Amino acid sequence: MSDSSAGPATSAAWPEWQPQGATLDPATAPLPQYGTGSLSDLLPAVVVGQEVPGLAGTPGLDLAPADRVCVFLIDGLGWELLRAHPAEAPFLTSLLASSRNGTGRPLTAGFPSTTATSLASVGTGLPPGAHGLPGYTVADPATGALMNQLRWQPWTDPHAWQPYPTVFQLADAAGVHTCQVSAPAFQHTPLTKIALSGGTFHGRLSGEERMDFAAAQTGAAGRTLVYTYYSEVDGKGHRFGVDSDDWRGQLMYVDGLAQRLAEQLPPRSALYVTADHGMIDLPFDPDSRIDFDEDWELRAGVALLGGEGRARHVYAVPGAAGDVLAVWREVLGDRMWVAGRDEAIAAGWFGRPGDGVDERVYGRIGDVVAAARDDVAIVASRTEPNESAMVGLHGSMTPVEQLVPLLEVRT
User: Fold this and answer.
1) Beta bridge partners of residue 200, listed in sequence order
2) In degrees rounded to 5, what are phi and psi of residue 297?
3) What is the mean pLDDT of residues 167-191?
């Protein structure tokens, strides 16, 4: 993949990884910065300056207040990918020093670093262990079936699955002019309803239309909260990889969109450009892509395989959880952080260490949770053919996947 090592921005912020060949201790995984610098801290920090009640505690992310705020989320635009491509993204690159209130530092996504989890964290202001979308696919304890939380299949009641109000709903109830500007296809999706609803949804097809309308809505009242979204940086990365001309072309395009939006901001406004995760390209070879469907050792004792290639939830048949953990740790433990459910929760993978997870969420987390440190993924060629064919992947806690920008423009 493209070089993502330019500059010193991340190395000091992340723990030393254990030597190659050693079994990785789950407690050494580079945790999301829940409560101080994660995606779930963004909107609470934004609306505290707009006098929006109903959010517990004081936001741990420090942002200067603004009456009018627009958040532009670019799906798949990780911090390290952006820093590695200054020629393709000159405008966004020029804003790197503004990230995270002028500190020049990134935010973290939660775990896993995947779209459904991250959008729920952004919209609710809660970590995955509270909002309850802790993966791409997770087991529904009520049915025993895998639930795809991006496509919402099989159907389940969205508000029973995620019962907390969104920050947008709290802002709207407090009199802040609140809206979302996105592709029309997203208006009625369950994920939008439980993560991003509140105020008014405005569907606009082209990226240019979204930017123009988002800018106009940001200036529509004295206090505003506007959210807009673009998905195809992620889409091109999955299909062609982040080392492809197709991906670089999308980065160039979205750089122009961000500049277009910034240049139309009304007075007393703040624009935040962020993302839900980064991405890594993996070769199509047996060492990089271990096929669960063809590996009897990894399948032994497993009832369901959830999550995605770089961040797996593994659900054991009754009584086999300990054996599954031992096998997965023996086979993969030098390349992936492999933890039991309680171990991952206690370590702080799904929320701050010591906070635990909501009772309704506990059984959605795998008996075993595996997160990739190295350039490896657990694919499933027969049961997940589309996902297994993707060039670019994400989900784990490595810097290229978990770190995201929080670029800022103010007027």
Assistant:
1) 179
2) -65, -45
3) 96
